[in-house]
Design brief:
The chain is mainly beta. Strands 2, 3, 4, 5 and 6 form a 5-stranded antiparallel β-sheet that branches. A 5-stranded antiparallel β-sheet has the order 30-31-34-38-37, with no helix packed on it.
Amino acid sequence: MCVRFVLLLVLGVSLPLPPSVLAQPGIVTQVETGLEPLLQTANGVAIDSTTERVYLLTRDLDGFSAVTVVDGAAGSLVGHVLLGDLFDDPDALAVNGPAHRVYVASDERLTVIDTEAGAVVATIETGLWESNVAVDPVLNRVYVSGRTAQGNVPVIIIDSATDEIVDEFDVGTDPLVMRIDTERHVLFVIGNYAASAIDGASGAFLADIYTGIAPQSAVVDSAGRRLYLAGTTFADEVVLQGIDTDSNAVIDQTPLPLMVIKGLGASLDRGHAYVAGLHPDFDSTALVVLDLQSRSVVSVFGSETEVAGLAVSPVTGRAYLAGLARVTTVPRVTIMHEDANSEPSGNTPAGENVTVEPVDSNTGLALISITFSMVDAAGDTFAVVMSGATPQPPGYRHGTPPLWAQLSTTARYSGPVTICMPWREGQFEQESTIRVMRWEGGSWVDRTLSRDEGENRICARAESLEYSAFLVVEAGFQFSGFLAPVEPVPVRNVVKAGAAVPIRFSLGGYRGLDIFRDGAPISSQMQCDTLAPIAAFTATASAGQSGLSYDSQTDTYTYIWKTEKGWANSCRRFGITLTDGSSAQAYFSFTR
């Protein structure tokens, strides 16, 4: 590729990201995808604007790659198309809506999916590694770039109607991103610090463009004659760059308040660009919305999702962020739109000691109260009471069901914030031990302020609501370990094979009889001299109908373990794991 140097005209200014705007007012809904998105590629999400279906590269629990399909209009999961590649992650995908095709670029091949049948219908051998793919739905052509085993860097042109390779040409540099101007049928092959414009119909070279940035994503505005790149400069500054596609020259460059770019899209009818990436101060994902005319920030949406990729519908203007929930690591697609809450209710007015009871978006109820010491500028405060379990802090356990919530606000505030949450009678076994934990820096931190057992209400205090998840838990079991007659490890308890062994312990009070984790208690055979295991753990059997019992007089649980006569002259280890994570083992030597 011939490189032409041009002068970069920098029109942008530094765009700080004030903490007060890190909220999620634009969320339409969130769709759990079931399969984990691939996090290594920003080219792993694409949208079919004819159907508003979103396609993303994912991986199942066994390590096989797949394409997951989400109905963006309905906000629901459609299903998955397995690609059959074990630990061989695809590099990129692209959609041809009118032809009902999705193309997945992987090492040495291109997989073709029929979107109506939801199945793989063809595999095209490309011989390219570290591939990229783009589609011109008007010409019905597919463009695949990558590197050959010999080190060449070609672009292969495929006829979408026949799935046959019709042309090939070299571009001379590693294409990191490819985009199509579908009006003029120009293919932009974008590499580090430079790009090429190619005639998509003939494959003829049109122009070289010196960009001066390492691109991470791109979008074409065909009507506006613009190509926008999101990437990093030589000085490690993250920017949005505008290129005039008539002159093929850089015309402006706007600094972004982000680190790594995870995706770029545009709602061109609004004249807005969407850039997803990591925010440097909070080490979390944000979606920055910029006005393409003025290059100014319109809004910034904080995300509780570790974003893997972004797609924006050119028809509806919806942004689709694929990734993992930060606290629960649940794979999901977050659907956002600027009109989702474009007329805020202003439930958080300016003033001192402002108390807000936001309506939970899941239940429609106002369950949580939030009191701000000082609100400097009015805004909206949001609460989402979550369902399902989340990792529990050591020494504590969830209620039944778990009780936790995610909170955010668009108001500007100062001073501490007090959060109060109710619990249901019977949700926790030991109400006197209930605490509130806040997710901070990758772990749960106790922020309990007060507890009212009569009103079933507990409060916490925090300095900020930024990316706030609050979890209500109770103290775990006060596990005593095994009591007599069983001696603790490393002592070997001598027992007659076939005898019923009483395993006794205390939990600091009666905690019900459903205290064992699934599969516990367990035992396994071990070497008598070295204590090394011989076999895997298996579930134990209890003696007759005795099972597990509790004696309130002695505050003691007893589990009667039924041993087998065939264990004579051997040794075993016995273990239990409780529902709060407590565990213990004991060693036994069996005689005849």
